[in-house]
Amino acid sequence: MSEYYNLIQLISGAAAVILIFLGIFLTIRQLNPEKYETIPVKSTIICTILIAAGLLFYAVVKTCTNLTVVTEEHYELTTVYLVSLGEVIKIFGFTVFIPLIFKLFKPRSRKPEKDTEDQLEETE
What angle do CA 12, 71, 7 make, to 5 degrees? Predict the structure, then answer.
């Protein structure tokens, strides 16, 4: 099984990078200051799920790394995965909140409506 760790690690690493960057890219793409709108909730949830899935795949990469180190101590696979997941969350867990933070950003100025412009001209 140890000969497959490198292959599993490469595939999981590529999937992790693709999912995390896809989640961040889709979040940033939704930010459009010209529209004066916030990011939709559905898009925020999808991007958060993509980033969380990417972090889970990165935990698989860390598990493969830790399995090669701890083979003498005979830990179970689930124990090593949970420890690796804890390390990943401790270091990169904040990235899950990136879509939520961008959703909380609101446009600084609203597009003026025609009614308010007409009212301002009438008062002058």
Answer: 25
Q: Which long-range contacts (CB under 8 A, 24 or more apart) does 1-6 make?
A: 2/67, 2/68, 2/71, 5/64, 5/67, 5/68, 6/64
What does the alpha-carbon distance between residue 63 and residue 60 come to, in Å, rounded to a whole number? 5
Q: Where are the alpha helices (DSSP H) in 31-71?
A: 41-69
3-class SS at 51?
A: helix
Pairwise CA distance, residues 48 & 54, whole Å: 10
The HSE-up count of residue 85 (CA atoms within 13 Å, CB side) is 11
Residues 6+ apart with CB under 8 A from 121: none
Side chain identity, residue 61: V
Instruction: List, for residues 22-48, the tens digit of each pLDDT value.
Output: 999 988 888 766 666 777 788 889 999
* Cα–Cα distance measured from residue 44 to residue 100, given in angstroms and rounded to the nearest whole number: 6
